[in-house]
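Memo to structure team: turn this sequence into structure tokens by end of day. - J.P.
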Amino acid sequence: MVTGGASVSALGMDDEEVFASLKSAKNRIVRLDSWDVYTKMNTRLACPVPFELPEFPRKKARGAGRVARLALTAVDKALQVSGLRDNAALLQSGQTGVAFGSSMGNIASLVDFFEMIKNYDNSGINATSYIRAMPQTCAVNISVFYGLTGRVITTNTACTSGSLSIGQAYEFIKFGMQDVMIAGGAEELNPTEAAVFDALYATSTLNDHPELAPAAYDKNRDGLVIGEGAGALILEEYEHARARGAKIYAEIVGFGSNTDGEHITQPKTETMQIALEKAVRCAGVSPEAIGYVNGHGTATRYGDISETWATYNALKERAVPLSSLKSYIGHSLGACGAIEAWLAIQMMNRGWFSPNLNLDEVDPECAPLDYITGTGREMDVEYVMSNNFAFGGINTSLIFKKTASF
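Reply from structure team:
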């Protein structure tokens, strides 16, 4: 059961603020003039979190760089929503675990290590440098901050870090290994991440018109935009949640994951489809039961085409309603799966689903799905699916069911 959740992105941190932003049908992409120094990088577009993050007690968060602070911000809010933030007895009982990931650790700290190798100068390295830089920095900073003594999973699987964390946390509870799991993903904005995709000619270069990018599924899309943020879900065993009178936001009923096993950066429709089919079988529902799909929607040609055909085929060639939140906040890499899962749950409970921004003409090479546009759509659906795909051919699909609480 999902008993809490939160997201941190350019849309805001409070759910009401986030949905006001979504209903404005305006993205939060900006041009970063500070990136002009990277003369051989084509893109200048990004989606930073524009507000200051909360301060955390230094003694408990001194090993937290920006990526871990984003994670802590989302987790603290999610625990507050769940009513568990001040329940130290449960958090520290060994029955609460954490599954959290990111693409990379804190870049500034990594630079300090690179400076040592390049310039033979280790003066920038201190006792917490590695703690901030290490791939598992989010998961371990969360566990230390709240005194968790349960299991720890760190999923550093690029764009599926958040969704894979949620899926594996769900399995831990399903098979009786933990009563509660804190799950999600985070990513801090850095030009090196934009450069990765820029080198693949996969970034948007509409630098003077940030309002027009990204344009997922559109015939005239020109690439993705990098963002930052964090998302967190609190997953809880049903009887445990019921015994304490917890509000249940959704039931996670399906999870599917696999790898393409073929190419590091080119998606494969067939194995993506299998991951979605695995999620549907896990949920024990018919493909026709899925009322909405939150798409990965990176606004890259191969990504959009492969994803949409995998969705269409997995859901029995049905024009299921689909939209991507990346048209608002760009691609937040390790964070996107968790942000999108929580907001998909919120949309299901509110009965309103956000549109694909900048989708003027659907690419005829994409599958014939029902791409939501305009001002969004009011729908009453019982099941929503949230899909994410990552470098390395890592595919994930999550299915959430509406509960009697809503």
